[in-house]
Design a protein that fits this description.
CATH class of the largest domain: Alpha Beta
Distance between the termini: 17 Å
Shape: globular
Oligomer: single chain
Number of domains: 2
Bound molecules: adenosine monophosphate
Number of strands: 13
CATH topology of the largest domain: Rossmann fold
Structural class: alpha/beta
């Protein structure tokens, strides 16, 4: 069984993400791939009492003078009060200010820009907004989030992401949507094909800029933003700000309002532990855990490569588990279907690679299992952040292979 020795607190504070770098270079030993991570970093007790800090917010949604249907749609989603980022950003965005939002997923940042931008479209149906996000999944999720605010309203949205039919996307874009959401690669491609005329946009949203840079999109982003008229409104969201990001902030934003939200360290809600196994027992051990269905209700398993993820999934299905996978080799529509099934609890085991699972907001994941260890501590934090969301407790188990 897995042991439960000791605990270690990770950093928390005003930065939306923990200070990973502090951990990364502490243990310089090499692994076969990625950085060696001391297994003790995978062990941490969840806080006994999950603190719900009293959030000081000034406004109610009624104070924003939203279109009545938009307000009703917001309420229908069960949003009672604005989250701190919404409280600080919504009026500023409505007033046309550039915004620099230091926040990560889970803070309500999507609605913080979606609600005021929809309101602006209702006031001016000629508005043209482009939203850039790092991954296909996140772009799709943003589209779904925005859609959930627009029933009964004339707001046209198009999605431009890789791995999906480009012809349909071209047709959607030619209809002149109010909001175009996409990943930098596909948007750049459609720009080259002269399908997208960037000069027509008056607002740009850059979501998860730090991840877009991690994924090597910096040149695409610069090229896209440079073509959007200087009179634009720019909304820039990032969980962290380093030198490279500061340079972008200084070039893209004009006198921005800075909105920084204090997020509790996601890992405070996650009981973290290791499972010591020998390589040949790994799968057996995993199945033993997954068989405890009462406990392991909704499990996200991370594998190191697309191939390993696929192989493990096939094997789990053969053994009768309700499992499926997402990774880069899977067609986009299949990835979306699998994700939907998992979100709706119709699938209870999802096996994934890191990239495919980045930034996803999946409700009620009971366990994250690192079947293969992450490449670095930052990836570890992203992975375990998929559980223990909101104020619920989550569990993260990391398989550590014995040498014998
Ligand atoms: P995000 O940070 O945009 O990924 O949002 C995280 C989660 O919080 C999503 O499931 C949202 O639907 C939810 N959410 C956003 N704003 C609110 C709010 N004002 N009240 C309750 N839930 C919210």
């Amino acid at each position: 069984m897995y042991n439960n020795s000791g605990s270690r607190r990770s950093t928390s504070g005003y930065s939306a993400r923990p200070n990973y770098r502090k951990f990364q270079n502490r243990f310089p030993k090499k692994r076969s791939f990625g950085k060696y991570i001391d297994p003790s970093l995978f062990i941490k007790k969840a806080a006994d009492f999950i603190k719900i800090e009293e959030e000081i917010t000034k406004y109610n949604f009624e104070d924003f003078k939203l279109d009545p249907i938009l307000l009703a749609n917001v309420k229908a989603k069960g949003y009672i009060k604005p989250t701190p980022i919404q409280d600080q950003a919504i009026l500023q965005i409505m007033n046309g200010k550039d915004v620099l939002g230091i926040a990560n997923t889970g803070t309500g940042k999507t609605a913080s820009y979606a609600i005021p931008l929809i309101q602006k479209i209702l006031e001016n149906p000629n508005k043209r907004i482009i939203i850039l996000a790092p991954t296909r999944e996140l772009a799709t999720q943003i589209k779904q989030d925005i859609r959930s605010f627009t029933p009964g309203l004339r707001v046209f949205i198009a999605l431009a992401i890789g791995g999906a039919f480009i012809r349909e996307q071209i047709m959607d874009i030619r209809r002149g949507p109010n909001i175009l959401i996409g990943t930098p690669g596909r948007i750049t491609d459609l720009g080259h094909r002269r399908v997208i005329d960037f000069t027509k946009f008056d607002t740009v949203v850059l979501d998860e800029v730090d991840r877009m840079l991690d994924m090597g999109f910096v040149d695409d982003i610069k090229t896209i933003v440079d073509q959007i008229p200087a009179s634009r409104q720019t909304l820039f969201f990032s969980a962290t700000v380093d030198r490279k990001i500061e340079v972008l902030i200084n070039t893209f934003l004009r006198d921005p309002v800075k909105v920084s939200v204090k997020t509790t360290d996601a890992s405070d809600h996650v009981e973290q532990n290791v499972v010591n196994v020998s390589r040949h027992e790994k799968e057996e051990k995993l199945c033993e855990l997954l068989s405890k269905k009462e406990e392991f209700k909704k499990v996200l398993i991370f594998g190191a490569t697309k191939m390993m993820v696929e192989r493990l999934t096939v094997s789990l299905i053969r053994q009768g588990f309700n499992a499926d996978s997402i990774h880069g080799d899977k067609p986009q529509h299949k990835r979306q279907t699998v994700l939907k099934l998992f979100k709706e609890d119709r699938l209870n085991i999802l096996v994934a690679t890191d990239v495919a699972a980045r930034g996803l907001d999946i409700p009620d994941v009971s366990h994250v299992i690192n079947y293969d260890q992450p490449n670095n501590y930052e990836d570890y934090c992203h992975r375990i952040g998929r559980t223990g969301r909101g104020n619920s407790k989550g569990y993260a188990l990391t398989f550590v292979e014995n040498r014998y």
